[in-house]
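Quick one: Membrane protein insertase YidC from Dyadobacter sp. 676, structure tokens please.
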Amino acid sequence: MDKNFVIGLVLIMLMLIGYQILVPKPVEPTPVAEVKKTAPKAVSVASDSSSQSVDSAAIIPQKDLVIETRDARVVFTNKGGVMKEVMLKKYKTYDQKPLYLIAEGHNNFQIDLPTQTGDVRLTDQFFTTDAQDRTLAEKDSAVITYRTMLKNNQVVEQTYVVRGTGYLIDYGIKATGALPANKSLNFHWDNDLLQLENDMKKNREVVTVNYYTDELKSLPTSPTANEEEKTADPVKWFTIKHKYFLAGLIAEKHPFSNVVMRANVNPEDSVIVKNMNVFAAIPVAAVQKGEANFQYYLGPNEYHIVDKVKAENFDQNVYLGYAFLKPINKFFLVPLFNLIEGFVSNYGLLIILLVLFVKTLLTPLTYRSYISMAKMRILAPELEQIREQNKDDLAKQQQEQMKLYQQVGVSPLSGCVPVLATMPILFSLFFLFPNLIELRQQSFLWASDLSTYDSFFKLPFNVPFGIGNHISLFTILMTASSIGYAYYNNQNTPTQPGPVNMKALGYVMPLMFMFILNSFPAGLTFYYFVSNIVTIAQQLLIKRFVNEDKIKNILEENRKKNATGEKKQSKFQKYLEKSLQAAEEAKKKQAELEKKSKKK
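--- reply ---
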């Protein structure tokens, strides 16, 4: 073998070995499914729902931004430049978990911006911001500006202002470049209302969407059916309303148009109360001019807080009853409740003090009512005699009774008027207590939460007519005290003639209310219970200072003066006299008609 040939062969072998050692093997491509699992979150700014490309090819990773305030923890995300989470620090759910009004996986914002080449879903875009995580002092504020660039160098900015205290977050959106003049930016808020209170059925009966045009309107509530409502009127603000909390958006200068609200409910769902959707349109011109400014309200539906929000009638989110009852709650009961709250931290004692204050204020009416009942007790023997003498003639009975009232100067209605005057306060409380967030999770005696029913005894089955699967002890005590008061009242009130037995009705009504109020807040039934006890005590106290013999002498003097014409007639006595005269004339005409018919 040639020497050169051997040397060449050895060199070739060495080259092949060196190549294998020194040159790395090519990397095999990773399967697509594996890339999805391992690749870090990074997307091109170019991605959007309408496949509209952008000029920038920068890759932006998804990143959250956390702002902590005294009252809330707000998490923003650069995907869409929207809020991802809002947690209220001062409140917990019924089972003592963190309370979220916006929760990841249960909330979705969708913002579609019209452009010259088609709509861009901004909430699918990835934004940039210079803002950093911050914990704000009470007087501090943070400005978060999210920017993204669209096609043709159009820039969209979303700006938020978060303050160190309170539940308002300023929001503005602005876009540069040419946009279609006659179109609107479409805003869609999809929010799952998580269960924050213990009674799922009651929650589904009260959650809704409130919206304000020139008056407050609400999406119909139903615990089992889906609801939808549209309005062509400009909407100044709307709120997604839990039982005690609000998540809403307020328009500062340009109201929302073409607003659509939907409530979807799945009665079998044990986590989500309802799914709420609000669709609204915002003028593009406002977006271009930088005038599309709004405020989010994400906080408690507490009257003295929402009353300070600078939006027209925003306080109406707290329902204070019918129009004629609202002033009583707004200008009397709510301020009184908040005044006592400043001195008393135990809400059971606060309710007792509220009862005592109201009852003391109404003492003159209670006194007049008792005096009227005393007069009727004195006249009871004479009234019974009239009934016995005219058993078969009800009209004659009534005429004789009216004549007796006229003679002694007594109005049978004078006892009813003071009682009726107190009714508006009782009805006002009926609407106020279920909407008082101040009672939420406040315990008293065996009730762990005065804002809901006290489940003293659980039933293994559901009872219809409002009872449910529990027995409320405060409701039982309220019913027992109402029956006790009816019994006491019946002993001091003569039987009134008429088709309805009012004494029996006094026992029936408390039993009816027991069914109605069994699932109402324990604070309300406790108030009614204490009110009944105080009323009985009040009447027993008044009885000690009322001399019925003196009242009897006054009635006899009135009888003598009216007989001689010395006493000037009251308006009621004049009315009775006219009524008696009219009754006598009617009786005479009836007698004449009967005589004529007999002659024929």
